[in-house]
């Protein structure tokens, strides 16, 4: 029999250091009964907490003040992964005496050292550059000094060249995470829109979020630049970056099966099986499709200086250039991949019910008389494309649970097999739910040495099932 246990996990080091109290470093790993760590493409930084059962009086005797550094090392036996995090404790909560009243239970909340230091600051400054150049300056000045960028990267142990003109900048002052990973990095993709902006006392995190919201690139028709942090890296990139990066590379494959193989020799099945499945959305909400602007929208561009109004009309079937998880332009997808048929779209989504936006123009456009106004901002394109893309990206959205997998990161494209729920069909796979998904959020939870992972996954409409092979998953 094998001793393989993919759920086993332990915190091997939780060393607390205070620069202010003069107290000696204290390792509280033996007091930790659980933890939770969340990363998301929708969050500017990762966050987590440790559950502590303190029978040694560390909280009062050290004492802990929510101002300490913490070096955290976690060993997970899913794929023999080791995670090393340099963090700052920022909150102590949920204090409860133990049942025998010989100690305290509480939570130590932490974020990365870089994010903690950055968000003690406020930015009041004017910039004149492309949004990606401004983002680079903000990060360099507030998060961590950046080394020269490179186009080379590693994916699943293979050397690759980053797509588009994305650069990977190592953080020069970052300590190595472990011998296999090295320093933390900042990935940044160029946005070509020049922008004169004044940051009015924003935190660095909110500044980066604001810059991502106004970024535009012809290589990213989805207009979805994002700024977020994972355990290893920071990203200021668009969704197309993640899709193009993994095209041609072997994505991780998973399957859903509430009952898996009990054979301990089937180790791969144990770590690749989703045990829980909740379908948040399957793309069957016509009312939301109408009111969201997913298929039709209008942007009224009001030019107060020249006293004119320009109406920009947008139609999914004519104007959508963004891609799905296979890299296929979404509007060119087969009817089987679309939640609505072409005839229904033409009849239902009309100019009359198109979602409408208003933009007050303070920028120049092609053909305008030269003036002192800001350069082209591409606002009408950004609004229509981003609203539609986000809706289609989340049309098929699921949450899954599995045994611990610390190697899965937000932004990763994975392949998922979901069996058909109809016992009368000869098809083994559910073609609407199976396919390529983007990992949006990961939540890793450990309780008394048992690690579990929950993921929020998004799939563009019903696309991405064409090249998936059905495998025997031991179920």
Polypeptide structure, described:
This protein is of the alpha+beta class and 475 residues long. Helices cover 17% and strands 37% of the residues. A six-stranded mixed beta barrel has the order 16-17-21-24-23-22. It has a four-stranded mixed sheet with strand order 11-12-15-14. Strands 19-18-20 form a three-stranded mixed sheet. The longest helix has 15 residues. The mean pLDDT is 88.
Secondary structure topology:
Elements: E1 9-17, E2 26-27, E3 32-40, E4 47-54, H1 58-61, E5 69-76, E6 81-97, E7 104-112, H2 113-118, E8 123-130, H3 131-142, E9 152-155, E10 158-161, E11 167-170, E12 185-188, E13 194-202, H4 204-213, E14 225-229, E15 233-238, H5 239-246, E16 253-256, H6 267-272, E17 273-282, H7 286-292, E18 296-303, E19 308-315, H8 316-319, H9 342-348, E20 355-360, H10 379-393, E21 396-403, E22 413-417, E23 435-447, E24 450-459
Parallel strand pairs: 12-15, 16-17, 16-22, 18-20
Antiparallel strand pairs: 1-2, 1-5, 3-4, 3-23, 4-7, 5-6, 6-7, 8-13, 9-10, 11-12, 14-15, 17-21, 18-19, 21-24, 22-23, 23-24
Helix pairs in contact: 3-4
What Rg is obtained from the alpha carbons, in whole angstroms?
Answer: 25 Å
Largest sheet: 6 strands, mixed, barrel
Mean pLDDT across all amino acids: 88
Please give the alpha-carbon distance between the first and last residues: 19 Å
Catalogue the unreliable spans.
Answer: none
What percent of residues are in strands?
35-45%
Q: Can you count the beta strands?
A: 24
């Amino acid at each position: 029999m094998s001793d393989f246990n993919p759920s086993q996990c332990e915190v091997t080091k939780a060393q607390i250091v205070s620069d202010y109290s003069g107290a000696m470093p204290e390792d509280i790993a033996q007091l930790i009964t659980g933890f939770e760590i969340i990363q998301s493409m929708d969050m500017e930084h990762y966050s987590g907490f440790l559950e502590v059962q303190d029978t040694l009086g560390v909280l009062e005797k050290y004492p802990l003040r929510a101002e300490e550094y913490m070096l955290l090392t976690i060993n997970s036996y899913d794929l023999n992964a080791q995670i090393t995090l340099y963090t700052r404790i920022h909150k102590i909560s949920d204090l409860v005496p133990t049942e025998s009243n010989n100690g305290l239970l509480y939570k130590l909340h932490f974020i990365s050292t870089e994010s903690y230091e950055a968000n003690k600051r406020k930015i009041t400054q004017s910039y004149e550059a492309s949004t990606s150049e401004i983002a680079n300056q903000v990060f360099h000045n507030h998060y961590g000094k950046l080394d020269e960028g490179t186009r080379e990267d590693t994916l699943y142990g293979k050397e690759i060249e980053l797509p588009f003109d994305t650069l990977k900048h190592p953080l020069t002052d970052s300590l190595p995470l472990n011998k296999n990973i090295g320093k933390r990095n900042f990935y940044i993709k160029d946005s070509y829109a020049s922008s004169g902006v004044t940051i009015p006392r924003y935190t660095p995190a909110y500044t980066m979020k604001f810059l991502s919201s106004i970024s535009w690139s012809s290589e990213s028709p989805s207009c979805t630049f994002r700024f977020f942090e994972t355990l290893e890296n920071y990203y200021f990139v668009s969704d197309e970056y993640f899709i193009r990066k993994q095209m041609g590379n072997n994505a991780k494959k998973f399957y859903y099966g509430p009952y898996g193989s009990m054979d301990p020799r089937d180790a791969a099945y144990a770590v690749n099986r989703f045990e829980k499945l909740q379908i948040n959305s399957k793309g069957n909400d016509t009312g939301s499709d109408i009111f969201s602007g997913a298929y039709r929208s209008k942007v009224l561009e009001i030019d107060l200086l020249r006293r004119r109004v320009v109406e920009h009309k947008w139609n999914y079937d004519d104007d959508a250039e963004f891609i799905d998880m296979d890299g296929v332009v979404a509007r060119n997808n087969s009817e089987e991949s679309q939640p609505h048929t072409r005839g229904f779209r033409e009849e239902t989504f009309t100019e009359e019910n198109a979602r409408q936006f208003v933009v007050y123009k303070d920028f120049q456009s092609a053909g305008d008389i030269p003036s002192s106004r800001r350069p082209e901002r591409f606002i009408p394109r950004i609004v229509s494309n981003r609203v539609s893309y986000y809706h289609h990206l989340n049309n098929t959205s699921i949450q899954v649970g599995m045994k611990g997998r610390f190697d899965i990161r937000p932004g990763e494209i994975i392949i998922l097999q979901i069996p058909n729920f109809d016992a009368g069909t000869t098809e083994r796979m559910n073609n609407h739910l199976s396919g390529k998904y983007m990992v949006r959020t990961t939540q890793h939870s450990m309780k008394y040495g048992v690690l579990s992972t929950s993921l929020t996954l998004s799939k563009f409409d019903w696309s991405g099932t064409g090249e998936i092979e059905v495998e025997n998953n031991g179920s």
